Q: What sequence folds into this?
């Protein structure tokens, strides 16, 4: 018995310092954000760089990570300089959110040389795991929701459909969203081909182009898929002005703070507003990127294998689930 | 809006809510969602069961000088409130009208009417305040016990006395001493910034600072400095309501494990806001109130007792707080005093 205790005690002495060291090891992680310029929307979805950064600040509270923040300011040269600074500081890992492919390739090379792992957000870096939104899937959810609504409520007629927003944006994310919307819609309504209404990303123009379109479709039900929440609110305004609320519905993309609020701060998507013509918006959770990305970073730092690509789990947020997905805290 | 309209509006809203609750919340299995009370299946008292005569007698030893320190804010127009919450009193002073006096002794009188939400100012959250689906403290299927005028179980009338020992935990000093205080620029005196998680280690450090060991039945108060924003009402109301430093879940569980009877703080929710998990709503409320029957006191004035503790190096006091027997209510504003 005594010998057993001695052996156990010796084992504990040998093992516990290592275990404690592993448990208490803190890592220095650099996060280079896409663009924190006030008023700049990230991925055209109504979120600011500050919101994304804040999500990293909040998500890191319970993790053994000390973050160093950089703002790439939407500039490739700045991104390269930030990466160089992160290398000089000897960080344990770099989280890079930068849209310039050439700069990303160079950042990947430099960090590899320095022996520092990289985790990319939205835009690939050779050899680095990627966390990204699934724009195609998000678009499909919106198209499908509109199609299902039409089948359930307007089964006796074929509606027309429009995709509203900065539809001329050539970026792969917008192209994928539009493709997804079209596919989702056709999955439910094979004979409907959405037309594209270009607002160039301006809500006021969105209201105008939709108003004009509604004027050409006076006897038809209209399904509107918008590329962002600001366009959805503009579309709603156009529909109300045209007195067409009984034959138009909208599904948006983003779920930014412009379209959902809290218990006191009422916005369009709200449990008390179930009759809204804005059926919902597809969540991208950019304001929670920190909560999604930092656990992946921690797994990398702890030597675990992580998937080459991790995608956002998009869902449709409506009056029915908005407070479940976005619990309000403006009450107590 | 006229007072009558406000009352009618509230009644209609409450009725609509109850109707929708009845439909939506009737199916929950409360035994799988909420812990059973350690005080038995019929318990509606919660953690105040722990305030036994022995606990009160031991707490009385804290009264050494008789000095009384206020721990409540005045409830006045302009203090931070949320959204549609309101607090208003209407003074009835008819007898002051000349000729309306009573008797040859010309007696006059005045009364008030409260038109107030109960969760305003320095207030207690009762066990009818927070649940998981329709399951409340002690696995109570609350959907069966709600009426338009109140709750038939877990109302404040069930609570026992709060005559116990109070402990002030000066989190500002803990964070200052640890060199990790990140204050908020709107605070005139040092405060923990919004979103700062108070951990079990932080609480242990606060207890160690004044050499206190928590006892079963203690009432614990956190001084975060955030109350300075309350004190600046109405100028800093928006900042006050936007966020706060507060308990993380692990720290709350540790306090529950110490069998305390209440946790109060100089902020509006006691727990950290924004919370540790962006997809969870007020998890510390559910942990303390729903699962452990531990009451939460919000908007507590802690700066005076924290200063008193710092100067005397004593963080304990006799807690003087009574809760009105307002049957069927989920909370009420309270007065709190620390007797030294």
A:
């Amino acid at each position: 018995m005594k010998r057993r205790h001695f052996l156990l005690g010796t084992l504990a002495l040998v093992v516990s310092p290592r275990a404690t060291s592993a448990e208490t090891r803190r890592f220095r992680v650099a996060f280079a954000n896409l663009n924190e310029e006030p008023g700049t929307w990230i991925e055209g979805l109504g979120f600011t760089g500050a919101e994304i950064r804040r999500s990293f600040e909040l998500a890191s509270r319970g993790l053994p990570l000390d973050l160093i923040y950089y703002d790439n300011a939407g500039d490739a040269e700045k991104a390269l300089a930030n990466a160089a600074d992160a290398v000089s500081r000897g960080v344990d890992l770099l989280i890079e959110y930068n849209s310039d492919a050439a700069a990303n390739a160079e950042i990947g090379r430099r960090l590899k040389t320095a022996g520092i792992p990289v985790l990319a957000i939205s835009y690939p870096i050779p050899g680095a795991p990627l966390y990204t939104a699934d724009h195609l899937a998000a678009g499909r959810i919106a198209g499908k929701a509109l199609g299902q609504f039409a089948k359930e409520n307007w089964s006796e007629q074929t509606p027309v459909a429009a995709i509203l927003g900065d539809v001329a944006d050539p970026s792969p994310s917008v192209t994928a969203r539009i493709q997804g919307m079209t596919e989702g819609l056709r999955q439910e309504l094979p004979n409907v081909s959405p037309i594209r209404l270009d607002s160039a990303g301006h809500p006021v123009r969105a209201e105008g182009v939709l108003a004009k379109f509604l004027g050409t479709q006076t006897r038809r039900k209209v399904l509107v898929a918008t590329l962002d929440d600001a366009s959805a609110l503009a579309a709603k305004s156009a529909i109300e002005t045209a007195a067409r609320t009984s034959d138009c519905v909208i599904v948006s993309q983003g779920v930014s703070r412009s379209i959902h609020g809290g218990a006191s701060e009422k916005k369009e998507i709200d449990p008390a507003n179930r009759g809204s013509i804005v059926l919902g918006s597809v969540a991208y959770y950019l304001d929670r990127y920190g909560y999604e990305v930092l656990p992946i970073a921690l797994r990398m730092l702890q030597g675990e294998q992580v998937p080459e690509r991790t995608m956002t789990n998009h869902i449709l947020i409506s009056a029915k689930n908005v407070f479940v997905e976005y619990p309000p805290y403006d009450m107590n | 809006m006229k007072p009558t309209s406000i009352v009618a509006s509230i009644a209609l809203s409450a009725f609509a809510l109850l109707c929708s609750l009845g439909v939506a919340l009737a199916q929950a299995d409360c035994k799988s969602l909420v812990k059973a009370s350690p005080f038995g299946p019929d318990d509606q008292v919660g953690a105040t069961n722990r305030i036994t005569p022995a606990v009160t007698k031991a707490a009385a030893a804290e009264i050494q000088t008789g000095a009384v320190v206020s721990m409540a804010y005045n409830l006045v127009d302009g203090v931070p409130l949320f959204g549609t919450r309101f607090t208003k009193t209407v003074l009835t002073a008819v007898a002051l009208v000349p000729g309306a006096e009573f008797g040859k002794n010309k007696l006059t009188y005045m009364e008030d009417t409260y038109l107030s939400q109960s969760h305003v100012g320095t207030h207690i959250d009762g066990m009818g305040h927070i649940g998981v689906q329709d399951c409340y403290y002690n696995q109570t299927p609350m959907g069966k016990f709600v009426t338009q005028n109140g709750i038939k179980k877990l109302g404040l009338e069930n609570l026992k006395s709060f005559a116990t020992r109070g402990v002030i935990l000066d989190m500002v000093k803990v964070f200052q001493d640890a060199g990790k205080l990140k204050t908020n620029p709107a605070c005139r005196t040092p405060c923990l910034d919004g979103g700062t998680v108070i951990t079990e280690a932080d609480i242990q450090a606060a207890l160690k600072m004044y050499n206190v060991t928590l006892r079963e039945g203690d009432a614990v108060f956190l001084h975060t400095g955030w109350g300075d924003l309350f004190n600046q009402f109405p100028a800093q109301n928006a900042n006050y309501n936007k966020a706060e430093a507060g308990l993380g879940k692990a720290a709350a569980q540790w306090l529950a494990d110490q069998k305390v009877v209440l946790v109060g703080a100089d902020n509006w929710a006691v727990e950290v806001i924004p919370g540790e998990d962006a997809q969870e709503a007020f998890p510390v409320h559910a942990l303390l109130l729903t699962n452990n029957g531990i009451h939460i006191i919000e908007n507590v004035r802690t700066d005076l007792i924290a200063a008193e503790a710092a100067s005397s190096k004593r963080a304990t006091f006799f807690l003087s707080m009574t809760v009105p027997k307002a049957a069927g209510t989920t909370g009420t504003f309270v007065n709190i005093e620390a007797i030294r």
Observations:
- The radius of gyration of chain B is 21 Å.
